[in-house]
Structure formats: structure tokens, C-alpha cells
Write a structure and sequence with these properties.
The complex is a heterodimer of chains A (574) and B (868). Chain A has 574 residues and is mainly alpha-helical. Chain A has a domain at 314-447. Chain A is 47% helix and 12% strand. In chain A, a hairpin with a 5-residue loop joins strand 22 and strand 23. Chain A starts with a helix and ends in a 19-residue tail after the last strand. Chain B has 868 residues and is an alpha/beta fold. Among the domains of chain B are: 25-117, Glutaredoxin; 131-242, Glutaredoxin, CATH 3.40.30.10; 247-298 and 480-564, Glutaredoxin (3-Layer(aba) Sandwich); 355-369 and 383-428, no CATH class; 592-686, Glutaredoxin (3-Layer(aba) Sandwich), CATH 3.40.30. Chain B has 27 helices and 26 strands. In chain B, the strands form 5 sheets. In chain B, strands 2-4-3-5-6 form a 5-stranded mixed beta sheet, with helices on both faces. In chain B, helix 3 (55-71) crosses helix 5 (119-130). The longest helix of chain B has 126 residues, at 696-821. The radius of gyration of chain B is 55 Å and the shape is flat. The C terminus of chain B is likely disordered. Classes of the chains: A mainly alpha (574), B alpha/beta (868). The interface between A and B is large, with 135 and 145 residues. Chain A: GO terms for molecular function: calcium ion binding; mannosyl-oligosaccharide 1,2-alpha-mannosidase activity. Chain A: It is an enzyme of class 3 (hydrolase). Chain A: Its cofactor is Ca(2+). Chain A: Residues 520-531 have a biased composition (Basic and acidic residues). Chain A: Ca(2+) binds at residue 474.
Chain lengths: 574, 868
Amino acid sequence: AAVLRSLGSLLCLWALRFPAGPAAAARGPDVASYRERVRAMFYHAYEHYLESAFPYDELRPLTCDGQDTWGSFSLTLIDALDTLLILGNVSEFQRVVNVLQEGVDFDIDVNASVFETNIRVVGGLLSAHLLSKKAGIEVEVGWPCSGPLLRMAEEAARKLLPAFQTPTGMPYGTVNLLHGVNPGETPVTCTAGIGTFIVEFATLSHLTGDPVFEDVARKALKALWKNRSDIGLVGNHIDVITAKWVAQDAGIGAGVDSYFEYLVKGAILLQDKELMSMFLEYNKAIKNYTKFDDWYLWVQMYKGTVSMPVFQSLEAYWPGLQSLIGDVDNAMRTFLNYYTVWKQFGGLPEFYNIPQGYTVDKREGYPLRPELIESAMYLYRATRDPTLLELGRDAVESIEKISKVDCGFATIKDLRDHRLDNRMESFFLAETIKYLYLLFDPDNFIHNDGSDFDVVITPYGECVLNAGGYIFNTEAHPIDPAALHCCRKRKEEQWEVEDLMQEFYSLKKTKKFTFKRAFDHGEGESPKDPEGASSEKAGEKRNSKKNSHSLLSCPSQSFNSKLAVLGQVFLDNT
Amino acid sequence: CSRAKDVTMPAKLPVSFFPPRSAVVDLFRGQLDYADQLRQGSDIVLYFFYAPWCGQSIAAREEIELVASRLSDQVLFVAVNCWWNQGKCRKQKHFFYFPVIHLYHQSFGPIEYKGPMSAVYIEKFVRRVMTPLLYISSRSKLLDFLSNYEPGVLGYFEFNASPQPPGYLTFFTSALHALKKDYLGTIRFGVITDRRVAEEISLEHSGSVYLHRHANTSLMYPKDIMNYTAENICKWALENREMLIRWLRPHGGKSLLLNNELKKGPALLIFIPYNPLAEIHPLLDEITKVALEYHKCNKSQAAEPDLQHLGDTDSPAFDSSVTDAHLKLSETFSITKYPCCNTVVLPQWHSISRTHNVCELCVNQTLGVKPDKVHVPHCNFLEIEAALDSFYLQEHTFFQVISNTIECSNFLSFYSPFSYYTACCRTVNRHFLSFISSEKTIFQTPKVAFSSHGKKDNTQFSIPHIEDRNCFIPDLNISNINITGLSCRTNKTLNLYLLDSNLFWIYAERLGASRSTHLKEFAAIVDMKEEVHYVLDQNQSLVGPTLENFIKNFSVLYSPLKRHLVDDSSVHFQEQRVITEVTTNTFQEAVFLSEKNVLLLYYAQWCGFCASLNHIFIQLARLLPPDNFTVARIDVTRNDLPWEFMTDHLPTILFFPHQRKEQSVKFPEDFPVNLPNLLKFILHHSSFSSSEPCTKECRHKESVLQQGHISHLEREIQKLRSEIHALHQAHDQLEAQLSEARREEQRLQQQKHTLEKQHKTLQLHSEQLQATYDQKNQELLEMAEKLQELADASENLLKENALLRILVASREGKLQSKDEIKEPLQSEQTPSEGNNASPSTAIATLEEKRIDNSDTIETEHSSGNRTE
């Protein structure tokens, strides 16, 4: 009977194969072919930049020439450097590193944005420095604690330091690279322009050993924290002299975005509970006051009343950030909202009026921003949902169909009619293309889950590097968190570790007690710890006693997350 | 330059979207007016509104073309670019997404298609729109129609009177209307024209409408209460239809479909490959049969026996699939005629053990003395119970069996000495079901037969440690093996759902369906509230009986179903890796059976806090002596674990000390995760049996330990060496840089010197020049003075001259007056004339001189400039 049955099912299978195979929708986009299309897009833009625009900052794709926009440091080239390596082009990476070392000069009389210079130039150089060994460059002995690119990054960062000399510690928005802050400079800076330094500056401090960078970045973050409103929100522009909020719209988008991003990424990079607790407080307020139906609106920072019911293209980074701290369900729900806007226009308008379901006057442009694709990449890591690949597919098709011109890819000036503008921002090559490629390349070294790593011998001892967990700065420049433990900090731990290793091999009876005390604080406070390090820990423990679990952790995914793919969302039971 | 900043470019002009020879009319300039014109000439029209940049439109294009190539003779396919802002379509329609498919049946429409963008589904829908009503001309067709699991609405209209009987058009429109509301087309509409056929379902009057239901009584459309309109009929049908088994077709956008369905209670999700165009669906029929049985609560129902009766009488003309199902059902009954056997899972070694000793306990009937046993009931409950009892008494003998081959032994029954029982045992890991399936012709059916007797038995038997025993006690009432009406008898009622595995296999994979299988059939019970799911073993083919068993096993009080743990099959167990990657399947082996202390990290790739610790764990794994310690990790998003090993936060670090694996300890959450802390934690909790007096073994251990220590130190030395080497290199580099700097300094010093010298000479030079300048200046001044003198002198001369002239004139005057007197004085006049000429020539030469002088002044000036 069993034979008969299986024969029967065989027969019906046969019948089922006719006339058409499984639906195309089920297969999802062909990842490999889209990956190659993204690669071709990169080279189309990159080669035209080199040909027509270098050494200017940016390419103007409609007129096939270049212009300086944020300074005069061949910005697109610096920004695109690590994308080259992610695409696997080692030789071009090496060539560009040489070009930059010879050609870029920061001793220029240029007024530069402190924020943009930090994220694009300092961030780009730092990541290129940390990746240079992987790119086959003959690094000097002290690498990753020294190197030409690191010195360049440090030089650029030092040019920004004068901006931080304000009574509040919050930096000016603009600084002259040669003369420091201009006498008549406006003291009004956006929130993100104050709170988007910790990733680059802490990395610089850890690598070079000079704490000044991390110190100013932390001071600025704390100043913002101190000036939040009673209901726990921050506005989007503040006077850095008087600490008065000039623009009091609170939200997660333009003017604020990367502040929140850097609280989380700083917390991860530095294993810093303080930064994380700040973020979690903000997160609570954001959920309470700005979240409606998985959209995030703009509210008045003191009253919490809705001021603008819009979605901004810049806000689309939020789901990606949520997935980093384990809030995947909410991230996916918000992402699906944002995706509908993409489907309506073939891009994300700078502002989208949610109740009206249409663009906002004068904010119809789409400068090929990466944020939604960035979120798709993070979420795809977490869920492997084919919907996210579909967004990637849509992005490739849209950008190629709409904005590709003979000389590169042009910004979309108006999403309603797809009129093009004569700009190609450097983040197109640095971020948009990078995230798209990474979405379609699940085996890229950037996605390394820790199965591969490099061991490097430095004068400070042995380091494990490139073990994954790269933190992207807000311009998509990856920073290896392991590198931060490689230089000065490594040395402090090393002898302690060596002593502990001796314990493993000794007869264990004598010194065991000290460890017991270090770990058994629950029963009673030990009066004095023999090691300085552990008394520090005891203090930390007292602070965080109220939290049942560490701030630096993600919740495990719920049972229904198994089925939360292909657009299905689940309501919390909690 | 500033002009270039304002350069913009209008969007490119639209080009054709479909290939030139396509069966689809491509209005890529959005000519909606022309599209409307086209519609006039065709009964059935499909509009495909697209945006050329839209990925979904591009993906759907192929599917539409496929459908068009098959239906182009009956249906007009029009694609309209509804994006181009100059086009009519964009100006008139406002879509939030693309593509949008609209269908028109003559003037009726638009009917929007919202189903999957797959050719077969679209074609099916188009065909439904083409013929919204099925014509039921005979009894067999009626039966066919009624036996379908999807709700059916029937109208009876006599066509003999007028060309169209009253109400027919409304009924027809209601069928189209239903397609608008119910885009999956689950409600089928049929029309009966034969009076005799209509009588089968007691429709007597032309114009009456009937909704067929399987589990509940069928309904007649209440014409007297509701107006007879298309909308009302459609609404009535949608409201009153029964959904014994439902297709789930998530549309891909954000939706709460699964959330809403699964929150209703436990759900059985059945994944089958489905082709909507296929004429017959044998597997689907079989499944719906089970569903019908499951929901058939009220036996005395009116409609049901009627149908049953029809089925029996009409069988030759009947669609083969139904009889097929009947046939299969009877086959399963025959299975029970095999000796009655029972699967017994012995208690596990460990609470979390993944291995079991599984025994097949069979009553050996040939040795039995009761002659009437061949007949129903096939398996005597008491017999099996007795056999189990006897077996339990000897169960210890089966505990030790750890073998992959089946070992059998016969033993005498405890109660009835005449019967023999056979027990075949082996140790299996969690795939133990596959063992059963290989033997399933024998074991399958009795295994699941069960009733509430289990409760009573619990107290009766005093062997409580065999946990699963209740499940294996067969029901006395064997005839109750079918699941008829089970949904009403159990308090764990299942909702049944179907999913097309061609479209939604990803859900099956998420629930643990094997990726390698080419046969995409899968069934799982998901209980959202309890957060568990069970799967039907994939080695068993998905057919009616296995499904029934699955449902029954779920419904019983002490369900034998085991919570399914999804395992990441892509990970391969590799010893040589620095960090051991653990999965659900290897958990037991890697953690509990390992002879080492195990540090286990729970992580997820997406969690930022986990990934940034990678390097610390790699360092730790490289440091710890590999003979005694394992550093392992498990990705908990891809690997489920038994409840007691679940964790609610990531990263979580557990330490399982050797020999005390059950006493695992958790790394305190408020301590920073770094190398020294981890080492302290491990040191504190690892077991060292140092208190015992030192035996030979201990000394051996010690020496091994010391050996390890030595090798560790050697490694350390190696590391230090390379560190020293690096330091030397750095030192050399520094030295080189220093000497470079020194050389540079020297060079600079030298340069400074030469520069200073140069400076000095330059200064000297400039002084000299200054001196010459002064000198020249002096000379010039002198010259000027001289000139002045000359000028003065000449002026004096001029004055003198003038005086002289006056004098001469006065003299001449005098002389003339004298001449008049004295003529002889005239001779004196000539020498005075000569005198008069000489000063004038002197003046001329003076003039010339002055010009010369000014020339020299000019040249001196220019030379002076040059020296400056």
C-alpha cells in the first residue's frame, strides 16, 4: 500500500509540474546577478569621477566635471576607498592610498563642516588605515597603532579640535582648517553635529594614545544629555555658547539622527554602559511621544505635541539601529512602512507627509541616500527575509533606470517627475553602493561572524584583529572593534592575564580565594580587593544593581519571529 | 561655474517596457484614453499598470507575458505606464504601489487582482473572471462541485422560458462581485439548469440560491429578508461560508495575517506545492478529507448523509480523486491488521539528552492462544497493557543498549504466560522517528491509537519514570481510529491552514523543514501561546493517515509530540576551529558529553554586543589549555534549545565545569566582558580535585598539567620573542627615523648656514648699492647745482644783454641825434654790432648744454632704479 501511495504522489507531482514551475515571487531576486550589477554601478560612477572630477571633492554628473563641496580633499576618493576593498579591488585600493598620501593637504584656508569632515574624512581614513593590511599594503611595524593614514586622520581631526573650545564643550558647526573658528561664526549647531564624534574620536584616541579626542567627544555628548528636556527629548539645533535650544522639533531624523546612532555604536564599540543607558532613556521617550503606528513623527521637545507628521528619508536608518540592539520586530515593522514610500516613488523623498501620503513642497528630492538600504542590510543579517532583498532589487532597478547618466549617477531633484540634479554626493559611493553590495554579498568579509580572524604582532603584544563585528560609522566606514583593544589598552591587561594563566597551571589552592571574592559580591561586600581592577568593578556593580540584566545585551528573539518574514508582523503580547 | 550648479535634466522619455513582439499591448506613454478605446472591442481585458523603474513591475512583466501568451486569443492584455508625468494615466490615477492589475468583464470592473505575482495564479484568476459561473449540467458535476473543500454557491435557473431567466444576471454579477472582494477566489459560484439536478439539493424554484456547507447545514438565500442584489448575495455568501481549511497567502506587504490567525489558537500549517491550474489535486483532496472529518461534529446532520449517499452511488462517474482518497483511507485501516506493536521510549540518560533507547514492543500473535484475535479489534488493549507491564519490569535490561542496530528479544508476559512479546530496542538520537518510519508499515498506526484511559493507568502502574508511556496505550475502541469530529471532542482544537510551498516554503524552512529535500511537503503545528511547534517528520510522506495521526497525537492529553527544535544545518562540527560552533544537534555532544570544561557563549550575529566580543573569545580560546577547556558558542537565532537552556538575553556566557556539567554557572551580567574577568570566572568555577590525597593518577594528571604549562610557557616565550622582534623592528624603525631626523637636522643646519651667508652677501650687496645710489644722488645734486649756476649765469648774461641793448639803443638814439649833427660818428657803430652778436650765440650753446644735462639725469635715474 505504501508503494502504491508513493506512486500516486509521484504521479500527482508529475501533474503539478505542468504547465509552469514555481512562481518567480517565491524565489526572490537573484542575489549574484544583482551583486554584479551593483559592482558595475560602482565602477561607472568611480571611473567617471577619476576621469572628469578628480581632484575635486565631487563629480557633477550632468556637466561631466568636478567641484569642491565640503572642503578640498578629493572627498569622493577618500569616501570610496573602503568600498573598493569591500568590492575586492585590492590594487586600486593600494594605488589610491598612495595618491592620498601625496595629494591631500589639510593646511588649507577652507571653512569646513566639523561634522562632515569628521565622518567622511577622519572616518574614511581611519577605516582605510585599519583595512590596509587586509588590502595587502606593506604596513609599518607599529600598525595598527601607527601608520601614514592614521597620521593623516589624526591631522584632520586636530584641525577640528578648535571647534570644541566652547563654554559648553559642544562644538561649533564650522571651522577654518587653517585659522580655527572664524570670529563671526554662528554658535548654532545641529544636535547631530555635536553628538557624532565618539566613534571616530574614541578610535583615534585608542590607536594613537592621545585621549584628547575621546575626551572632547564625550564632553559634547554629556552636554547634550544634560540639556535634554524634562520629557527626555532633544531638539534639533542648539546654541553652543548659551546651551539654549534654537530649533525645538524633536524626532529621529534630520539634525538629530546620528546622535542616537553614535550613542548605540559608541556603547558597542567601547562596551560603555553609560552611553547605552543614555540611549535607552531617549528610546523610551521617542517611543512614548513620537511613535505612531510604527511611524516616527516630529514633536515639540518640551510638550511632546506633534509638530510635523512627516517621515524623512534620513530617518530610515532607525530600523537598522534597532536591529543592532535586538529590537528586530519593531525594526521590521517600521521598515515595511518606509518601504511602501519607496514603492510609491522609486526613492525616498526628503520629506513625506504621512497623512496625505505624498511628498512635501520643496522636499521632493532623493539624493541617492543610503539609509533605507543600510537598514535592509542589518535586518537581512537578522532575519534573512527575502523582502529585504526585494528592496535591494528595487533600489538597483530604480537608481539605474532613473539616475544613471553618461557621467555617473545624478541626484534626483524631484521624485514626482524624476528630474535630475547636477550632483553626485560622495556618500553614493561610500554608503549607498556599499550597503547594496553587502546586502547582496552575504559572504563578504565584513559579515564575518568571528570564524575568521587575523593575528598581528605589534610592539604592544599580540592582537586578534578582523574578527568581525565591524562598526560602521555614519558614513559607512567600518571600524574593527578589536583594533581598539590592540594598542595601549592591551598592555595593561597583558600581565594580569599572564598571572591568571599561571594559576591555571599551578596547584590552584593558594590564590583561589581572591577570585572568589571578586565574584561573590552578592553575599557581602568584600572590604578590600587586592587588585585595583576588581575594586573598580565592584563600584560598577553597585551602580547597576537595579538592572536585572546588563545594558549591553540584546533580548533573544521571540518565538513568533520564526514566522515574521515576507511582510508578516506580530503584535507583542507584552 | 555658478551656472553649472543649476543644471538639471528632465527625466528620460519613456520607452517600451515589453518586448516588441509581445502579446501585451504596451502603452508606454500612459495613453489611458487609448486603453479605454481598446477595451470596447474585447470582452475580457486585463490592465497592467506599471512604473518602468519598479522592480516588482519588472519581475511581474515576465509572468504577465506568460499568461498573455496562453490567453491572448480570449483576453486583451494592455500594459499602461502609469508613471510618466506627461501621460494620461499618471494624471488620472494615483497608485501607491506598482504594478496594479485590473480586470474587466465587459463593462463590469475594475476587479483588482491582489494575489501572488505568479503566472499560474494570475491565469487562474483571469479564467475565473472569464467564467465566473460553473455550469452544473449533471449529477456528477454537482457532486464534484459540492465535494470541493472551498465554499460553493449554487443558483438554480430554468433557461427554457425566456433567453435569460429573471435574476440570472444578478446572480452572474454577484459571482463577479465576489471576485472583487475575495481576490483569492475561494468562493465558487455554480449554476444549475437541470431541474432534476437541482432537486438533489432540494432547490425547487428557479432563481433560488444555495450555499453549500460541509460541517454545518447548508443555507438558502433568504430572499424575503434581504434584497436580491449582487452585493447582497456576495456579502451573504462571504459571511456565512465555512472555512474548514484556509489558504494563507501573505501578499508580501506589511500584514497581520499570520498574527491574527495564529492567535486564534494552535494551528496546523500544511505546506504543499500547489498549481491552481491543475485539474486535479489528489493530495489536497486527501487533506481536505481529513479536515472535513476533523470538523464533522454532528453526525446526524442532514446534508452529510445525503452527500455520502451520492458518493456511493455515483462512484463510476465520480472524479477519480475522491475515490482515490477513499481507497487510501481503507488502506490505512488494513494497516491495523498487522501485529499490534507499541513504541516505548525509555527514560533518557540525561534530562536534556538527545538520545533515547527506543523499543518496539510487539505482541507476538502467532504465539498467542486466543484464536479470535485476528478479527477486530485487532489489538487487544489488555494484551498490550500486559506486555508493557512485563516490559517495564525488565526495562533495566534495555537501558544499557547503545547500539544503532536493532536488537530484539522475546520474553514472557507477566500476566498471561501463553503470550510472547518481542521487544526490539536501539539507541537513537533525536531522529528516532526515522526509525519508526522505516518500519512504519508495522508500527505507525497502533502507535497513535489512544484514548483517555491513560489517566487511569497512571495510578495503576507504579513505574512513573517512563514518561511517555500513556501515549502508547492503544484505545480499546479501535473503530474510533478515524478522527471524525475530533475538533469538538478535544480542548486543543486546531485551525487548519494550507500554504503553497512554491510561494511560501520559507515559512516551512523557518519551522525546521529540511532545506535539502526536493519534495516540498511539510506540516507543522504551531502553538503561539505556548511558544512551541511540532512538525510532522519529513521522512514520512504527507498523506491523509499521517496527518490524521499527527492531529490525534496533538489532541491527546499527554501528547507524545516533542517540541521541535530548529537546527542550523549549515554549520558543520569542526574540532579544529578555535571556537567550537555548537548547534541544536551537537549541543549534547559538545557540552555534556565533552570531557572538558566548556565555556559556552550564546550569541546572535545581528546583536551588536555579541559581535564586538568576538576577538575576546578568540583570544581566550587561544590562551586556555586545549586539553582541558573548550570555548564554544551557539547562534540561538538559528538553533533552538530545550527550555532549560534557553536564555532571554544575548550575549550570555555559561560555564559547564568538567564532571559537574549539570552545575552550569552564568557569567555575571554586570561584569565587563574582558579577558582577565573571563579567566577569573573560569578559574573560580573550574573543578580541581586538589583536596584528595595524591594518588598515582593524580600525579599523572599533575604531570600532564605541568606539561601543558610548559607548552603554554613555550608559546608565551614564542609570543614574547616575536613581540621582542616586533619591538626590535619598531626600535630599528625608530632609530632609522631618528637618524633620518638627525640627518635632516644637520641638513637644515647647513642650509641655514648657507642661507645666512647668502643673506650676508645680499646685505653687503644692498649696502654697496645703497652707497652707489647715494653717490649718484650726490653727483646729481651737484650737477643740478652747476646747472643752476649756469642758468643763473645765462640769466645774468641775458640781463646784461638786455641792458646792453638798452644801452645800445640809448646810445644809438644819442648817436642818431649826434649823427644829425655829426656824420663821421657812423664808423663806430660796426664794432658794437659785433658785440651784440656774441651773447646770442652764447645763449644757443647754453641751451644745447641743458638738454645734454637732462639726458644724463634720466639715465642715472633708471640705473638707480635697477640697483634698488
